[in-house]
Amino acid sequence: MSFQLVFLWSDKLIFLLLAVAVATAIYVRRHEHLLLPWKRVAKNGVAMVSLLVLSLFLLVGLLDTLHFRSALPQTGGGEKVYSPEVLSVFDTLVGPLRTHTEKTYSEPFALTLYAKESMTDAHGNILRDYPRLQYGGAHLADVSQRTADVAKRALIGGGLGLLVGLLSFYLTHRTVRCTSGCDLAVSIATLLLTTFIGAVVSLATVYHVLGTDKVGQDVLYLSLKSIRTGLIIGTVTTLVTLPLALFLGVAAGYFRGWVDDLIQYLYTVLSSIPSVLLIAAAVLMMQVTLDTHPDWFDTAAARADMRLVALCLILGLTSWTGLCRLLRGETLKLREMEYIQAAQAFGVSSLRILTRHIMPNVMHIILIALVMDFSALVLAEAVLSYVGVGVDPSMISFGTMINAARLEMGREPMVWWALAAAFGFMLVLVLAANLFADAVRDAFDPRLNRTETAT
Amino acid sequence: MSLLKVDKLVTRLRNGAAIVDGISFDIAAGETFALLGESGCGKSMTALSLMRLLPDGVTNAGGAVAMDGANLFDLPERSMREVRGGRMAMIFQEPGLSLNPVMTVGAQIAEVLALHHDLKGAAATARCIELLGQVGIPDAARRVDEYPFQLSGGMKQRVMIAMALAGSPKLLIADEPTTALDVTIQAQVLQLLRETQDGLGMAMLLITHDLGVVAENAHRVGVMYAGQIVEQATREQLFARPLHPYTQKLFAALPDARRGGQPLSAIPGSVPPLGSITQGCRFALRCDKAWVLCREQTPEWAIVEGRGVRCHLYRSAEERVLSAESPRDSDRTLGTQHSALKSQHSALLQVSDLRVHFPIRKGILQRVVGQVKAVDGVSLSIPQGRTLALVGESGCGKTTLGKALLRLLPATAGSVQFAGKELIGTDAARSTMQMVFQDPYASLNPKMRVAEILEEGMSALNIGGDSAARQAHIDGLLDKVGLARDSKWRYPHEFSGGQRQRIAIARALAVSPQLLICDEPTSALDVSVQAQILNLLKSLQDELGLSYLFITHNLAVVEYLAHEVCVMYLGRIVERGATAEVLRAPRHPYTQALLSAVPRIDGAGREYVKLEGDLPSPANPPAGCHFAPRCAKRMDACAAYPAETELSATHIVRCHLYDRKD
User: pLDDT (tens digit, 9 = 90+) per residue, A257-291?
Assistant: First the structure.
């Protein structure tokens, strides 16, 4: 075997989440009335397009989650030695993007670096000019050929992408019958996306489509790698927040009395401490612990990953108060509803009332709050990285990209593309998540769907 | 000369469905025109169209509204603003929601005065006080600086009326002005409206679903159904002989003691959804006089004996009129004679001296500084198979009593015995008593399907056998309450109000209780649906021998359904007796006032016992007899709370007027 699979902590958590999601999906498929709202989601064009975009992000994130260490060339019959570098399947797929590093900043589609340097020409003269890039557009002799070449490659790539899209349509349509309604919007979106991806792939092999950063890394590669970090921060933190907020909020609202007092004190105290300070203190303590035990980890990646998971935990433990307060308020309203009293009159146990009557009726709040939190958490990571208590500096994330942009924006001429790339990717990710969550919420609200099922 | 003339008014939803479909009427100065109809038939939309205040998504699609000869639909928005409040004013249903809670009452009235009469400063204040005095608010000079939360519901509605009058309108639109108020307050407000109208010569458009209110206040009546006026007549004509089958049914559906044990003639089904009927008569589906023509051809407006009606029965002149008999003896569905005899009179539920007090806490240490005595020493008993009605104004503790019996609220003192077993302090016998709630829209969990709702009680109490047996039981329950069996896999929002109340009743019956506590089960429903539910409750009683504790403020329902009545005032029962005794010969001055406040459809001269003021706070009840401050017959002895006086074996009253002179 020439490689060794590596399961980092965050990988395990993601696989756990994935397993739960698959199990839920199978359970839902077997129950007609649970499937019904999802069928409504499937009929919603906007929802399906957002889902398509989201699943692309998820795909990248998941490919980036399959980690391994490749074996080093054997040196004299000893036991196998694996590279200290942990790579993911995604890294190998986009090989050139990762390895084609330039010297420093270059603009998108540039052939030269962004700053002039002193060079010696063939005659020994020293002149200051923009040096050519090592990889970006290296096949071209001259800047004047660039436009034509970009157009040609984009067309070829786009055409191939379109072809793949059409082919996949042809295949899926013969096997799966798409229900009406979603057809048009989703087909167009799929074709547009495949065309776009085709063009980008074709261009990315020879150009730095989104430019390069300070140390010459391709910004497109950085952005794609950041997706996994963003998804982990968004979802794993939720795993910690949700049970806390849901249980405490609903319990406080339903039981009132001393339970309510206790929980209220807890979250009032917690939310009156400046959260950045609290998080910074926790992260710094965690960092010291990790630093004093280098023997816990065999690779630098494992250490950076542990730090990410710990950050998620800390963020989760400090950010449940908002949702908890919302849920408490809603539960206070719900507990006075007559159907709760009817259940009490039957002697239904409190736990059952909480799970059967109250929780389903606060789900819409949870769904919206979580998706809103998702973007807030990705941003929180950026803020924390700025203060220096975020993810490990070696870990690529939107936060570190934005943090680096702080210096780049202050330059003249300005380096804008790294920030723009991070901004664009986050925008698409968060927007798609929001639109999808909105459609899901609508589909699950029985009051909004009366016309369809009443007949 | 009519003041307001509405001609073929059409109001549509954006998707084309007509909410108001070509209605025409006119109102003369000094006249009250009532629009009568069930919820969802377009009454309020008509009023909002007149004011040009339609909500988003609803548009005027034709017709003309002329006021004093000027077409309101042609006016620019600027001059329309002068019409609103100035020439035409509106009173809304919920006085609690239509006053701004952060402005004083005076400031809100002054706003109208500044806008329409250019009155400011001291002159405006003086006029405010005058207006408040005019609508019967005592101590107006002080009230003018108070905030809405300091006023009771009836006072707020008076303030709303004062606000409407501030612009000296020629037309007053009153949209269900008394629906949210108690009967006693309703009587006060209706009287106020009549007096103001007489004094100022205003025209009034009264929108209501209550035939009693129409009988009290209207001069002419338009009956609306599904966006159309189906009948228009003077009050006398309409009450003497309604022509349209729908109007006849409305009269027949009113509960009344005279029909005693017989089922009410309910109108089957409910109002059709908007725009669903494009051809034929809109009432045809629910009408028992409908024939083929009714489904094929839309009936035209016909003038019969100087009154209008939209029905094929009167299409060809007047000979057909003969077929429409008086509603009083028309189409009475045959039912099983209710047998009062079969029930033995041993008490199933025996409540003695039950008290429910809520502590009032103040300060950081949460010390108890007082008690709200919501229920203060109530004793009653309900025999098997009988119905006890509990009546009283809102805030008198009726609902609290019901919830305390179910142990949803802890009782402070007293005992509740069910079939000889003490219930207070235990959690036993949950299945023997169940509750049907007031609002069927709030009493069913929107995220649970009907089968799950019905099964909940069984699984909580561990009865009903295995899952198959329970499903069979659920099918049986649905049959019993008159719902289709396949409705058990649907969610509550797919049902109408009446059907939801049936589900709520089925849920209560699922655990085979012996006593049902019905907390105003029909007050959120339309008259025709109310009749369906009352019939259902009555037939269930006959079939299953259920006992009911019926909590209500609707005395007509009491007359129809109850065997015994308890009248409650400020947490205590002031009069108790057989229904006939209490309602025919009320002894306690409060019962007398309550009964006289109910608007009667026969409208014939009744003595109105005016009840002053509002219900006092139960946190601070008046010393002695609680009713004394509002009582017209108070005397010195009222300083002490009266003891029970037995007037007959069944009739008990607590009033010094009937003290035995030993």
Answer: 899 999 999 999 988 888 888 888 888 898 888 88
Q: What is the side-by-side strand order in the sheet with B228-234?
A: B88-91, B171-175, B203-208, B32-36, B220-225, B228-234, B307-309, B302-304
CA distance A441 to chain B (A): 13
ipTM: 0.77
Other beta carbons less than 10 A from residue A438's beta carbon: 17
Asked if A224 and A303 count as a contact pair (C-beta separation under 8 A), the reply is no
B-facing residues of A in 23-42 (CB < 8 A) are: 33
SS3 call for B640: coil
Backbone torsions φ then ψ of B461, nearest 5 degrees: -100, 0
Is A338–B437 a contact, with Cβ atoms under 8 angstroms apart? yes
Q: Taking a C-beta distance cutoff of 8 angstroms, is the pair B454, B460 a contact?
A: no
Closest CA to A189 of A443, A455, A428: A428
Question: Do residues B613 and B626 make contact, with C-beta atoms less than 8 angstroms apart?
Answer: no
Which domains does chain B show, CATH number per domain?
1-87+171-240 (3.40.50.300), 98-168 (no CATH), 247-267+279-329 (no CATH), 347-658 (3.40.50.300)
Please state the pTM of the whole predicted model: 0.79
User: For residue range A347-377, what is the model confidence (pLDDT) as tens digits?
Assistant: 888 899 998 899 888 888 887 788 778 778 8
- What are the residues whose beta carbons fall under 8 Å from the beta carbon of A153, sequence distance 6 or more? A199, A202, A203, A206
d(CA B275, CA A49): 34
Q: Report yes or no: A253 and A329 within 8 Å, Cβ to Cβ.
A: yes
Helix (H, G, I), strand (E, B) or coil at B604: coil
Average pLDDT along chain A: 84
Instruction: Identify whether the C-beta of residue B656 lies closer than 8 Å to the C-beta of residue B635.
Output: yes
CA B357 to chain centre: 28
Per-residue pLDDT of B194-208, as tens digits, reads 888 888 889 999 998
Longest dimension (CA), chain A: 98
Concatenated DSSP letters for B85-146?
TTTEEEE-S-HHHHS-TTS-HHHHHHHHHHHHT---HHHHHHHHHHHHHHTT-TTHHHHTT-
Sorted by sequence, the CB contacts under 8 Å of residue A83 that are 6+ apart come out as A69, A70, A71, A72
Q: What is the mean pLDDT of each run of 10 residues along chain B (662 residues)?
A: 86 81 89 88 87 83 85 87 87 84 91 88 91 86 88 85 89 87 83 88 90 88 89 89 87 71 73 72 82 81 82 62 42 38 64 89 79 87 91 85 88 87 78 87 88 89 84 90 86 84 91 90 81 89 91 85 90 90 88 84 62 76 85 84 85 85 56
For A220-454, CATH gives 1.10.3720.10
Residues 6+ apart with CB under 8 A from B544: B509
Identity of the amino acid at A36: L
Q: Among partner residues B430, B438, B493, which is closest to A447 by beta-carbon distance?
A: B493
What does the alpha-carbon distance between residue B166 and residue B174 come to, in Å, rounded to a whole number? Answer: 15
Number of separate helices (H) and strands (E) present in chain A? 18, 5
Confidence of residue A451 (pLDDT cuts 50, 70, 90): very low
Written as six digits, the tokens of B576 are: 């108790």
Q: How far apart are CA A337 and CA B120, in angstroms?
A: 46
Which residue of chain B comes nearest to A356, CA vs CA?
A: B448
Closest-CA residue to B356 (of B388, B393, B419, B398)? B398
Q: Which residues pair with A68 in a beta bridge?
A: A5, A87
Q: CB distance from A7 to chain B under 8 Å?
A: no
* Cβ atoms B267, B249 nearer than 8 A: yes
Under an 8 A CB cutoff, do B446 and A348 touch? no
User: In B, residues 154-193, which contact A (CB 8 Å cutoff)?
Assistant: none
Interchain contact, B447 vs A360, CB within 8 Å: yes
